[in-house]
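In response to reviewer comment 3 from the previous cycle, which asked for concrete evidence that the modeling workflow produces usable outputs, we include below a single protein chain processed end to end. The sequence was submitted unchanged, and the resulting structure tokens are shown without manual editing.
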Amino acid sequence: MDPRFTLRQIRYFLAAARAGSVNQAAFDVNISAPSISAAISQLEEQYNIQMFVRHHSHGLLMTEDGKKFFASAKVFFENAEALESEAQGLGKTISSVVHAGCFITLAPVIIPLMSHAFSAQFPLSRLSFVEGHQASMLTLLRDGIIQIAFTYELSIGRDLAFEPLGEVAPYCILPLDHRLAKLDRIDLTELAEDPMIFLDLPKSREYYMSLFEQAKISPMISHRTTSPEVVRVMVSHGLGYSILAMPTRHSVAMDGTEFTVKPLVGDFPNLCVGLLASAETVSTHTYDAMRTVAKKALEGVLLPV
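The workflow returned the following structure tokens.
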């Protein structure tokens, strides 16, 4: 039986599913938004399936039928691309749009650097990033929404492959007028009675708590947030201290107030940063290209492994 869909319809459907928005999908594949909407409507009408729930404020949300169709369509389209590449003898081609994820605390450094370096080396290709915490990166990879993630080596299952790019060391941030602000290094035991602003992200929270366990103290957490910027602003306003582990060590909060950054006393474990992907993606030319660009672009940004 001949299929009742076209490769173009499948491509537009996949773009919309990954972007969660018709307008973003149109940008990703360089086509008009009505063309994206028409392709989705044609597929839905052809197979009598509702692929998405449309929300003006939230964009497109895949239905359960849409998720099942996405899983099969993704495999089908990747096989079609591979066949096209092989047929034309273009074994070194990479995807025109590479869907990548980035841990939220790494995003301010990695996304600009990688976007610039990747487009400079592969002008016919582009990175499309989503940001999130570790649990969301793992889910997006397993669901096929993203191909590659830049993240920490935290709670990774055997179904995914992690390749180290470098490390980041934990450090303390303090208000400028804190009693320990003039010290060269901070001993966590000296902060046992101080209020802490805790960066509370899934999977990474366990790492931060392990530092206090190693120091044999329990932090007095006064506020929890999932935003690194909220952490910095609250510390700069004297509401507590915090422990962070990310490449950026600037000392100015979003509102222009300042804080001080100090390394820790003690032999605490660094966090490893790297590329995360499925076994199928690791064997592709797209992954090879991303790895090559990343190693060069992030040299000097991360501590050597």
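The chain has a mean pLDDT of 90. We consider this sufficient to address the reviewer's concern, and the full set will be provided in the supplementary archive.
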